[in-house]
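Chapter summary example: a protein plus (2S)-sulfonatepropionyl-CoA.
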Amino acid sequence: MQLVLRQVQDRTGIVSLNHAAKRNALSRNLIEELIGALSEMKAASVRSVILRAEPGAAVWSAGHDVTELPTSGRDPLSYDDPLRRVVRSIELLPMPVIAMIEGSVWGGACELAMTCDLTIATPEVTFAFTPTRLGVPYNTAGIVNMMKSIGVPLLKEMLFTARPISAERALRLGMINDVVPSDELEGFTGQLADQIAETSPMCVTLMKEELRILSKSRPMSAETFERLQGQRRHVYDSRDYREGIQSFLEKRRPEFTGE
Ligand code: YXS
């Protein structure tokens, strides 16, 4: 079964997450297919890519595949982790990626959606950024990436509570581009893609790259980076990290002790 479907409609690519049984969890296999689909869209020289789940999805994506998170003292979100690789694929794709969202968005899937260049959601959509619910020390580049779309006060609330926020609130606080009723979502997003297709592709590619570079430029000394990496290791080596994952697998609430 294909975990990711892809098609080209006129000058727009449509890439669909297709693993509803696992709530489109971002497993290694799904991400490999997603990276492949994005490369195909680049080769097809589409003007934009719409990234969606199956029509009427209750869950757009449940985030990182928890069963694939390491519990052996390894960094769960290192540079070559699949989630990190697909984030870079979207950032480096020369055409805009539009996240068209129905259903709930969880954990690393929030970063996947925020990495897209534009985000259109239905009113029922919620976003829950959940590292603290699982005890996962989110990686620094991922936090910087989220700061591009989410103001620090809202990002702190999402991280410190792991509570879902509504599409309406996300729109009001500038986290997403628009909220449209579900029966208008495909038409609205398609029109947006058509408008992009009328502009200069070279200019769009240039400005996407300019914004990628300028929005990442946060000076950090090597010592500061290493201090943060040491703090992250302290977390992913902790009992709480293993408890977070175990509690998910056992479908129970985690009991964190700060150890
Ligand atoms: O029991 P089966 O085999 O049918 O599988 C179940 C779930 O185990 C599976 N599934 C997942 N498998 C791996 N990783 C996941 N993230 C994941 N989510 C779901 O899909 C099958 C159906 O799930 P079920 O029965 O719970 O569906 P539901 O409709 O009742 O509930 C949907 C959700 C999304 C509310 C629920 O599945 C859920 O809460 N999923 C976990 C959401 C979450 O906490 N995601 C964060 C993952 S960790 C991550 O993204 C980052 C590392 S971080 O933590 O840093 O943000």
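Key point: Residues 22-23, 25, 59, 62-67, 104, 106-108, 130-131, 133-134, 136, 138 surround (2S)-sulfonatepropionyl-CoA (CB under 6 Å).
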